[in-house]
Every structure is written in C-alpha cells, then in structure tokens.
Amino acid sequence: MFGRIKSALVSQERIVLVTAVILFCVFSLFLKGFLSAANLLTLVRSVSVLGVLGVAMAIVVIGRGVDLAIVATYAMSAAWTLRLATQGVAIGPALLLGLALAVAVGLINGLLIAFAEIPALFATLGMAAFVYGFVRFALVPLVVVYMPANAASISWIGGGFVAGVPTPILLFALVAFLGHAFLAFTKAGRFIYAMGDNFAAARNSGAPVRGLIVLQYALSAAIAYVAGIITATAVSSVNTNVVNSSLIYDVILVVVLGGIGLSGGRGGIRNVLVGTLLIGILLNGMTIMNIQYTLQNVIRSLILLSAIVLDSLVNPRDEQTEQQGDI
Amino acid sequence: MTASPGTEPPLLEMRGVGKQYRGVAALKDIDFDVRRGEVHAILGENGAGKSTLVKILAGAVTPTQGEIRLDGEKIHIAGPSAARRHGIAMVFQETSLVPTMTVAQNLYLGDEKFFNRLRGTYIDAQQFLQSLNFPVEPTATVQSLGTAKRQMVEIARAVRLKAKLIIFDEPTATLTPEEKRHLFTLIRRLRSDRVSIIFISHALEEALEISDRITILRDGAHVVTGEATAFSRETIVRHMVGRSLTNALYGRADAARKLRAPGAKVLSVQNLSMQNQVRNTSFSIFRGQVTGIFGLVGSGRTETARIIAGIAKRDSFHGGDVRLEGRSVRYRTPRGAVSDGIVYVTEDRKGDGFFETMSVADNVYIGRISSPDSRGVLARRSEAQTLAESWTRRLNIRAIGVASRVIELSGGNQQKVVIAKGLVQKPRLVIFDEPTRGVDVGAIAEIHQLIGALADDGLAVVVISSYLPEILSLSDRVLVSRQGRIVEELAADEATPDAIMFAAVY
Prior knowledge:
The structure holds 2 protein chains of 2 kinds.
Chain A: H1 6-30, H2 37-62, H3 70-86, H4 91-114, H5 120-139, E1 144-146, H6 156-159, E2 161-162, E3 165-166, H7 167-185, H8 187-197, H9 199-204, H10 209-235, E4 237-239, H11 247-257, H12 269-288, H13 293-314, H14 319-322
Antiparallel strand pairs in A: 1-4, 2-3
Chain B: E1 12-21, E2 24-34, E3 39-43, H1 50-58, E4 65-70, E5 73-75, H2 80-85, E6 88-91, H3 103-107, H4 118-132, H5 147-160, E7 165-169, H6 177-192, E8 196-200, H7 204-210, E9 213-218, E10 221-227, H8 233-241, E11 265-274, E12 278-286, E13 290-295, H9 301-308, E14 317-324, E15 327-329, H10 334-339, E16 342-345, H11 349-352, H12 360-370, H13 381-395, H14 411-423, E17 429-433, H15 441-456, E18 460-465, H16 468-474, E19 477-482, E20 485-491, H17 497-505
Parallel strand pairs in B: 3-8, 3-9, 6-7, 7-8, 13-18, 13-19, 16-17, 17-18
Antiparallel strand pairs in B: 1-2, 1-4, 4-5, 9-10, 11-12, 11-14, 14-15, 19-20
Helix pairs in contact in B: 12-13, 12-14
C-alpha cells in the first residue's frame, strides 16, 4: 500500500492476528484432529463465503459507506439464477441475468447515495428489504430454491477441488487478491481511500466522487453475487431466509474485527483476511469441542469485545491522537 | 502595567515540564510561571509547543516529565475536570459548547440541580450575564449566536466556575475589530479582578497590546520570558523564528513593490446571489495579478468563492452569471471547475483540505489524478513519489520525507501540501481562502512569496483574507466585501488601511 497508513491500525490487526495464532496453537495442542489437513481445509472453506462478502463490504466501508443490502443481493440474485435454470433457461444466460440483477441493485444503491444523497445506512437498508420483497414477489415464489439438473455443469464452483483444495477457498483467494489489487493499485482505489478519509476534501480536489460511489456499490453487489453462487453450488440450493438471519452482522464483524474502521479511510483486504481467519478458527474449534450453539455466541462476542478493549488499551486515544494539527 | 511584579509568589509554576510522543519531544524542559492578575502571552510558530503547553494545564494532555505547582503546592492535573477543580479554565479555539442548548443551559451544564427549573436557570443566568455586562440572551440557543457571543458564553462559564486562570487559545482569530476590542476590555476587567490570563495568538500586535508579560517558545523549548514592554515586533519575530527575518513580512512595502498590471479578464461575476449569504455581487478577476478580497467574517467572501469553484450545492443559489473567459459557466461539482482550471484552496484545511491518514505523496497525487487530463486506470507509485518530491522542494515543505503523514506536519507545512495538491492541477485561476490562517511566521513569508510568483507566471490569483496587513502586502488590486457583496474596488496605491476598513464596516 502507498504511504504509511500502518502505525495506528497495525496494532488492532496484529492483536487479532496474535489471538488467532494463539487460538490455533491451543486448539492444535489440545483438540484431536484440529491440525489435520482435512480439518484445516474444512475450516477455511467454512468461512470463505463470509470472507468474500467481507471483501465486498470492505470496499464500501473504506470509502466511508456501508452496504446492508449485501446479504439480500447475495441470496436473492443467486436464488433467481437457480430459479431461471429450473424454468429451463440455459445456465450461461441464467448466470448473466443473476449478475445483472445484483449489479442493478448495486447501481440503485449507488445512485441513491451519490445523487439523491441519502445516507448509506438508510439507502441500503431500504434496498435490502425491497430486493428481498421484490424477488420473492415477482421472481422466486419459493423459500428454498434447489439446483436443477441442468445446472450441474456449474456445481464445481462450490463443490469442486483443484489439487485437493476446495474451489471456494481458491475463489476466496482470487476475490481477495483482485480486491487488494483494485484498492492498492488503481486510481479508483486511491480515490476510495481519499473519500473515506475526508469526503469533502476529495470532492473539492475534483475527484469524481459520485461515479466512485456508484462504482463501489456496484462492485460490492457483484462480489456478493459471486459469494451467492459459491453457496448455491456448494449446498445445491439457496435458502432465501438467510436474508433475515444475522449473517449481515457477521460480515460487518469480520471487517471491523480485522481493523477496518467504520469511519473509513483505513485498512485493507489484509484486515479482512485476518478477521475471517480468527472467526474461522474459533467456529471450527468450538464445533470440534461440541460446544452448544448458544454458548458459541457468547464466546464469539467476548472475543470480539476483548479484541476491541485490548486495542484501545494499546492505542489510547487522547486529545493528541485525535487532533494532531497543532502540537 | 503589572499588578505586583516579583514580590508575590506566582499563581502557577511549571518546572522542567516536557511531553514526548513516541519518543519525539513536543515540549522539552519548560520553565514557566504565571503571576496573579497578569495577562501572559505565549507566542511561537506552529509546532513550537504552545498548544501542548496549555493543553497540559487544561488536563487534555499528560506531561511525561516535570512538575506543576499551583499556589506553591504541587498538583497533578489528571483530566479536564481536575483542571476545573484547580480553577483552570480554557476557552477553546473551536468552542466546546453544546450548540442545540440555550446559553443558560450551557452555563450551568454539569451542575444542574436535581429538580431543574428552566425558568429559574434563565433568571440566574440573566443576572449573572448582566453582572458581567455581556449582551447575550440566556434563552437563545448557542447555534444561533455568532463566534464572539459564543466566546462570551465560554468566558462567562469560566468566570462562573471561579477560575483563577483562564487560557485563551487564539481567541481573536474569527472576531471583527469591534468584537476584538470588546474582548480586550473584558480581559482587562478579569485582570483587575485578579484573574490570571494565558493568551495564545498569532497576531503579534494583539499580544503586545494586551499582555503584561510575553513568553516565546520555539521547537518545543522555552526561548525567553519578559515584560511585554521590553519587546517589539522585530524582537519577537527574531525569537520566534530563531533567525533574523527582515521585516518584509507584512511591511507596507508599497514603495518598493512593483505592482502588476492586469492581464486579460479571466473571470467575471455578474449579479450572483445565494440565499442571504451572497447578494447580487459583481466583480472581475484578471490574469497576471493578485486580487485581494477583504471582508469581515460572514461577509460572503468564502461563499462567493465556493460558488465559483463549484463547491456550493447548485440548488441553493438563485441567479446571476459567472463567466470564465467569456463563457457562461455554472458548475454542479468542483470537478467541473477543476477541469476548467479553477482551483480553490480552502480556509479549513483539516475540514476539507487534506487527507490526514495519507502521506504527503498520496495527498499531492490525489490532486494529480483528480485532474481530468489524468489518463489510465492504474495508480503509479513512482509518479506519486517524483511528483511529491519535486513539489516539496518547490514549496519547501519540511517533512522527514514524502512518506510522512500530513497530520504529523506543522500547520504551515500542511497548508503547503494543500496548495501543492491544487497546483499540480495546472490551474489558470487559483483562489486562496485565508491562506495563512494558523500558519507559522516563517511559512507565511514563503506562502506569500509563492502567491506572488504565481501571479508573475501569469495566473489569475485571488486571495481572500480578513487580515488587513496580508491583503495590503499581497494585492495589486483590492476588492472589499460587505454583507454578501463586493462594495468597493481599490487599486493598490489607493488601498490604505483606513479606506479598506471604512468600506468593509461602513
């Protein structure tokens, strides 16, 4: 990345990374079967969809936005793709139409935020409800859509292996790599950091802020669609009820836990990887230990809280760090 | 002038106080004292440590070494509330009042009675404000007040809490001359009530006028303390910058300065109006000269500039015409203005000027890739690097390297980064809004030089300032703004301080 965005945030990222490593070592020592190659692949695979969604969210959050429609886009556009295939549309066009739906949602989000100047929180919350309602009403009248036989040709996306590694992991890696390249090496990426840092200054400098906002949400929606297709092909179905689950909070958790501040301008895809990894290790270990689901939630939230507390202890925010203008 | 020099022990004493941030000393080994009932000015360039020093007293910053004594007793100021308990109050640059609450509520904020009657509070506040002779309505909300009145409320709060020491951080920056006089009267009254005052300012004349003693800091170290009468402008400046600076700065060097003749007309504004901030204003800007726009805060100068540069929201203005080289333009966004070569250098660099998490190089580079002639999709690190290096050299930006974060620089260097970010866009019209506000003395001279050089290179340059000496020393032509419109145009040779001030306040 350009410059030294590090100093302030390395710490949160590092704390989370160290926590992840410690957990990993403890689980490796005390949990039978944790360290096996098969289990490690299962571990990463189980969070790869979450990670892909995290990349989508990161691109928006770094530009000081938030996309609460990510999960709705993820589930409903994938559901429509399967539905179209079921109705006899060839899988190629069905995929394209699904992608078009997702991107349309992203474009509308972007237009509402950039041109109608509605706060991202409300615009995307409203769109999430609209997309879910509209798709269920007009396009997919079922709660659960199953993958039809004529779509078998794409089942490798979620269920395949390359050299023994499950394809969802590889796709996660690919999306993360492309996301990083976009943020770090393109002008649009630089502008997104600039908007997140100081939106008014970016606008005054002549940056095409409106176009960039639309681009951010369109990208986020397109990436969400990729995640949707991974899930759909991995479990051969889409359960549209996921829109009403707590998945959206998990996505935000992954992003924030990794150290991307919700105030924008800070962090990168690396932070998403670190956050995703910690969640993955935690969930996997607890599953092996056969801890009941409600207790898992308690532990997960405690880990999150302690990561944040630790960060504020390491980085005390006094007057000076807040407004270092005049020493 | 001083109440009782020397004989009485000082109210406040600091011995060997220092503050380090990650190993960098912002303040080193400061000895400083304040007597009872004196006005003590602290002067220094930005980054000299003034703010850190008073923030230590106000409890906002904890010193890493040294001791503080109040009334001879060693104290530890753990936080703002501890400072208040010790009778130390600070009147902030950005006021710390709650804007949506009324004046009375703000005055009693933090120690309301359990059963709080608003009416009773208003009556108390009314009496209290009258006893101070402050013309402030206790039932008015703070957001409806101007800067001067907000300051009065802050001062009233400090007095109400029986502060023994009141710290003013740049209190006059946004005041009109009238309000400034009122503030000084107040400070003198507080002094006669044996309240001690610490006064931080960039305006040396003010410090000389109001203070009993003056302390000068440089690079975080104490340089000199002495009776105000023992100082002159020149000695202060010499102590502040640590080098002998000829008095070119702000000197009325009219005789020596060659005025630039106007070139072609670049911009003409006709009957421009926006809400009640800009009212039917008309003027022109020419190539190859510096046009100074003087006016008091709130006279519509900034708003006019922001319309021209496309920053003001389009739906909020009502009419009029802006012509750029004869072509009628009305920008929806700053991007349109930038692509036509109009650059606006903001008055509030932290608010909408630079990117604080980014390096110097990245800041300048954002300016570069925002220009419409920047082609391609990829960001090139090497281009950012070389661009920033050449501009830091050209503008003499003092940073450890172009990879330093802008937030770590002093005010003057931050301002230079913002200017560089604008100049990489190769503008033909540059509008500087308060270009030297919160900028240290050394950098002021450099920025002034740069502004002159831009005009010499044939650019149309506009300088908006509420600091009269700045307008006088820079402009080839002076426009005076009052109540939302340009009311007077003066050639540099007829622009005397009196003539300008007369037009500005009428």
